[in-house]
Amino acid sequence: MRAWWPIVLLLGCRPAPVQRGPVQAPPVPATVTASASAPAAAPPKSAPIQQRRSAIDHFAQCVIDRSQLYCWGGMTGLSAGDPITAGLAPIDIDDQVVDVSVGARGACAVGKKGNVYCWGDNTFGQLGAALPLSASSRPVAVVDISDARAVSVGQWHVCAIRAGGRVACWGRNNQGQCGHGTAYVAAARRLVRPVAVAGLAGVSHI
Asked: pTM for the full model?
């Protein structure tokens, strides 16, 4: 009898087929690249104008509470003569107050509508109203400004930030405090109306 087992063995050990042709590499994931026409980042916005909710100096203090201005101490604008009060007293300003500053000889506030109101000494025109007053115990509206955002009171002069960050100053100018280059002109050493400070824009704090 003929034996068949060698044939069966050969059939069970058939080699794996050999791949012909070039070997294909696995696909590479696509990468995302930035577009050359992507919009540039927006420039940073200018800083918001800083406004004071309270102010203090040698003899007086003021605070804004729900748009109403209250002051106590000296030079508060309460009555004629020597206005001094030991407690809170409202200051009569016909607008909602958004900023206040107190100096050694007076104070100023900014209303929401953009007007500036000052009271106290007026020896060098610090009231900014071109009025023949030596002082005022009540707030006086500063002329030529209706777009104020903030105000700062010095000893003898005042400066305010206007729309666009421009600055205007008035009062004593014997040392060029008002910043417009006319300190040595005798007529400009006492500025009774606001005058623009040249070269300033975008100011956010004063």
From this structure: 0.71
